[in-house]
DNA sequence: AAACCGTGGGC
DNA sequence: TGCCCAAGGTT
């Protein structure tokens, strides 16, 4: 039979293959993607990447891998050391949970990172996304992986919506339906979809002209309709407890030893809010009080 | 289910 | 400038 003279559009069946091909040249060469990266290194990267941009994670991740190349190594150090090494990645409870995860891996998994999704989800700070990412990228399992990028790609490509909206359990099945059957390709496909969302199918100004699947994108075919649902409101930061907690922790991170309360007073003027935030940091285990009443990162 | 948990860069 | 957003998880 003669081949078709017109360029063949991307059919629904090979979206996965097209994304795979695209990612061969377009995907970033991130350090936690290398062939020599073990599951622990992947786990650490994934936790750091929770709500934190790649560029800020990279240098810290390299430092952590050099210092604590195994769960046992991290499990052996104090929370204070881990919190300091976390630096200003944000959401420092992640650092505590990462250390707790390291302890759990030593105690319950012989110091190794399990490949089982349920076992991973049982670890502190490891949820639906991170568990599958570790199983997939760390252990080579063909797991569907759904993060904010993938939710956005699925919303547009599959459902023709402009925005992802709230997470849906069906997202997992939606990506799985696009994935190649062959396990090794399915793993690379999971990387590819995330890359598409991170580089092309971005939130604010999608670069549709550069999209490898624009011809089959339900959102484009529908004429790129505007978002329909209620605009999700963005979290305030200035003046919130999050900012105050950050200020307080900043003082404690910088200090050599225990800090007397008056020094913390300088971090935030409002005494009521300051006190509330210090209490919450104590409850979270990010701060502890010495017998003489001073404050420090937990030894 | 919705609110909370840091921080900084881009537009 | 102020808003939007970033490889989520927990409560």
What does this structure look like?
- It is a single chain.
- With 299 residues, this protein is mainly α.
- It has three domains: 11-28 and 141-234, Helix-hairpin-Helix base-excision DNA repair enzymes (C-terminal) (Endonuclease Iii, domain 2, Orthogonal Bundle); 31-139, Endonuclease III, domain 1, CATH 1.10.340; 241-296, Arc Repressor Mutant, subunit A (Orthogonal Bundle).
- It has helices at residues 15-26, 39-48, 54-67, 71-75, 79-86, 93-108, 117-121, 128-139, 148-158, 170-178, 183-199, 218-221, 241-254, 261-265, 271-284, and strands at 288-289, 295-296.
- The chain has a two-stranded antiparallel sheet.
- A hairpin with a 5-residue loop joins strand 1 and strand 2 (295-296).
- Helix 1 (15-26) packs across helix 11 (183-199) and helix 13 crosses helix 15.
- The termini are far apart.
- 34% of the residues are buried.
- Residues 1-8 have low confidence and may be disordered.
- The protein binds a DNA duplex (11 and 11 nucleotides) through residues 45-57, 88-94, 97, 124-130, 133, 145, 147-150, 166-167, 194, 197-198, 202-205, 234-235, 237, 240-243, 245-246, 249, 280, 284.
- GO terms for molecular function: 4 iron, 4 sulfur cluster binding; 8-oxo-7,8-dihydroguanine DNA N-glycosylase activity; adenine/guanine mispair binding; metal ion binding; oxidized purine DNA binding; purine-specific mismatch base pair DNA N-glycosylase activity.
- It is an enzyme of class 3 (hydrolase).
